[in-house]
Write a structure and sequence with these properties.
It contains 4 helices and 16 strands. It is globular, with a radius of gyration of 17 Å. It is of the alpha+beta class. Pfam families: ADC. This is Acetoacetate decarboxylase. One of its GO terms (molecular function) is lyase activity.
């Protein structure tokens, strides 16, 4: 399967050979998080009663089929769309441990026109153009993203402790919603040079509506954990409408 995006052919699956990333994971009220993602028809995962997981992530795509670009994502851990409606918190924890939970890509600013067009057309990812200022090297990783002249967020993440083995390969269902359709995409990751720690993030929110939504979740607040990834190879498969 292939797609023609802005006059260029993109073959599936799409490969990212080299990228770096840093992220912060936050505990947020599940009722508020659910109200934010209700438009998708999905259900937030609760890692404990009344609490959901929201992630902020900056990615520097260095070598991949969609070219080099910066990306900022707001994600929520969600139950699989095939999970029974009576799933409990214990069931959610089991799905987290088993890797059968999914990640909803709720917001996805980027700084490349081609990747924006490809992301929206191929997978229904909500990519929009934005302005970035990032630093992915050093002991503290920093990122700032703005849109329409308004700051969305500034995030800094301190390096943690090396994860044994450098990080395990994993597969995740990536959910997206665009133009009235919710889609599920297979997302395979092979990270190396992974470091994690409790806390370790500083976040500042700006005046953009995306920032206002994060404030509804209680941010800025202490992160549950932070992670930096020196190199992240990824493969994105076809999207399926659910």
């Amino acid at each position: 399967m292939s797609y023609t995006i802005l006059g260029k052919k993109v073959e599936m699956p799409v490969e990212v050979r080299t990228a770096s990333a840093f992220m912060a994971l936050y505990s947020v009220p599940s009722t508020t998080a659910q109200s934010i993602i209700d438009y998708t028809g999905l259900t937030v995962l609760q890692y404990r009663p009344g609490r959901a997981l929201c992630g902020l992530v900056f990615v520097d795509y260095i070598d991949g089929d969609l070219g080099p670009y910066n990306e900022f994502g707001v994600t929520y851990m969600v139950r699989s769309h095939t999970a029974p409606p009576e799933t409990s918190v214990l069931g959610d924890l089991r799905s987290l441990a088993a890797g059968t939970a999914g990640a909803l890509i709720h917001e996805l600013p980027v700084d490349g026109e081609f990747t924006k067009a490809a992301g929206r057309e191929i997978w229904g990812f909500p990519k929009v153009l934005a302005e970035f200022d990032t630093e992915h090297v050093g002991s503290v990783k920093r990122g700032s993203v703005s849109r329409d002249g308004k700051l969305i967020t500034q995030l800094s993440v301190k390096s943690g402790v090396s994860v044994p083995g450098g990080g395990a390969n994993m597969s995740l269902a990536a959910y997206s919603h665009l133009d009235g359709a919710t889609r599920c995409t297979s997302w395979d990751m092979a990270p190396t040079g992974v470091k994690s720690r409790p806390g370790g993030a500083e976040v500042q929110l700006g005046s953009h509506p995306m920032a206002a939504e994060l404030r509804k979740l209680g941010l800025p607040r202490r992160a549950l954990m932070t992670t930096t990834i020196k190199n992240l190879a990824m493969t994105f498969g076809e999207a399926t409408t659910i």
